[in-house]
Amino acid sequence: MVVFLIAVVVFAVIIYLAVLYFQRSYSEAISEEQDKVKKIADDSLEEKLAEISKLNLSGESLTEFETLDKGYHYLKNRELPELSEVLNDLSDSLQHYQFFRVSRELKGAQKKSAGVQQHFVELKQKLSSIQKSTKAHEDALKKLQQKYQSLRTVLLNKNFSFGPSIDKLEDKSAEIEDDFSKYTKYSESGDFVSSEEPLNKLRNDMSALEDAVQEIPPLFKNLNNVFPEQLSELKDGLKKMKDAHLGFNEDLDSKLDKITKECQENQQNLTELDLVAGKELDEQLADEIDHIYEQIEIEYTAAAKLPKDLEEIGKFLDHARKQQNELNIELDRLGQNYTFNNQEEDRSANLDKELADIKQHYEQLTQARQKEEVVVSSFEVKKLDDDHQRLTDIEQEQKQINESISGLWKEEKDAFDAIEDFDTEIHRMKREVEKLNLPGLPDDYLSYFFKVTAEIENLDTEINKMKIDMAEITKNLINTQSDIDVLNNKTEEIKDSSMLAEQLLQYSNRYRNRYPEVEQSYQQALTQFEKEFNFVGALDTISQAVDTVEPGSFKRISEQFEADKKTVLAL
Fold first, then answer.
1. Which of 97, 425, 436, 471 is most buried, by the most CB atoms less than 10 A from its CB?
2. What is the spatial distance between Cα 336 and Cα 494, in angstroms, rounded to a whole number?
3. pTM of the predicted structure, to 2 decimals
4. Interval 313-348: pLDDT, tens
5. What is the rounded CA–CA span in Å between residue 12 and residue 18?
6. How far is 368 from 563, CA to CA, in rounded Å?
7. Nearest residue to 543 (alpha-carbon basis) of 513, 515, 571, 502
8. What CA–CA distance (Å, rounded) separates 168 from 175?
9. Under a CB-based contact definition with an 8 Å cutoff, are residues 112 and 86 in contact?
């Protein structure tokens, strides 16, 4: 029984706490929505509506305002009271613990409250927009009027600065005044919505007039003052330069005529207020005039430089021709005795043509100046610069050709000396071999000896011809020198091997009777020496036999042989 009572008490406490929780939670939610309703009611728009109603709105602006006014009063007199009544009813139900009803209807009330708040915010923003738009239109009109008066003052006081554009500018002014009339008609009637289009047109027309007032004076000044003065100056300058027989690479008179026509064309652009085309053509005219000034400056500078360049080329040409004449004489003289291998004669002939071409240009230009013919100085100065560089190159080529032929006589003398040395050398080798009194010589040695001898004889024949080819002779000298060196090595080999072999054959006599193998090697070596003339083979055969019975004997004898050779050479 006690447990049951405790359970009943606990359940009752839970129920009580739940009732308190729901009552407090729903009460706070209802109070929050009631505060929002009160805030909207306290934030009255009546004063703002009254201010706007005094603006004498009409047309679309009035229609929009009336819609906002009705919307606000409907919200104030209908939507807010209904919402307030619903919230009060929910508060009463909460006091009577009708939690399920409150839970069911509270969400709907909150949704309706959110809609009311959104409606109020939109009404407030749109009313503010009407006020701001009205203020903006008033400010814009005031600024535009001030700007227009400023532009009109400029047009009246400085109409001389606008030249042929003034009539169109006046038409623009009249159009702007018409824009003001249309805009004023809408704004004074309070139809600010409909006045937006004429206001934008007024702004655009005013901007166009402002641009024209700023851009036309410098364009007209160029057409009326700057360009005519420059054209007059250029025409006078061209006439003076032509009178001085100075020419140009371009037909500048035609260009001046074209510029004059383009000035007339730009006058028409200003008359029609075509500022885009006017500015573009103005820049083009300035560039074309600058180009003519530049051409005149180029020719004037070149004309002052031409006499000095012409005189310098004349002196340089005389010097180069004198050197060329000397070179041709030397080529002719040496060509009788030598064959040229670097196209010296063809190269010299090309230099003759180059010099003739430069001489022709020099004489033509000199005669033209003497006859006071028209001369394009810049072209001639450039060509004289090219001629100067050509003469510099010609001088360098003359030097290279001269260097290539001037040493031929020395090369010939050196070749003679070399051939004599070769002859002396081969005779020396022949005598040294003959002094050995050998039974004969190897075939390969004799073949090489006769080959080198033939080479020397051939060189002697070539060097003694009426006209010699030093390049070919030099190449053969190199080959023969190499062959002489090889033959000398072969000769030394025969001398050393034959003399050593003879010494060892004599030395082996002491062992022949005691050692049959030495006797056998002796006979073999003797055959190689006297019959086959293979001195190196004989030395190898007998040295091995002697070393077998007396180790180290060959080394000792050969070392002594080398020492004796050095002693003889030293003497």
1. 425
2. 46
3. 0.52
4. 899 999 999 998 988 888 888 777 777 777 888 888
5. 10
6. 89
7. 502
8. 10
9. yes
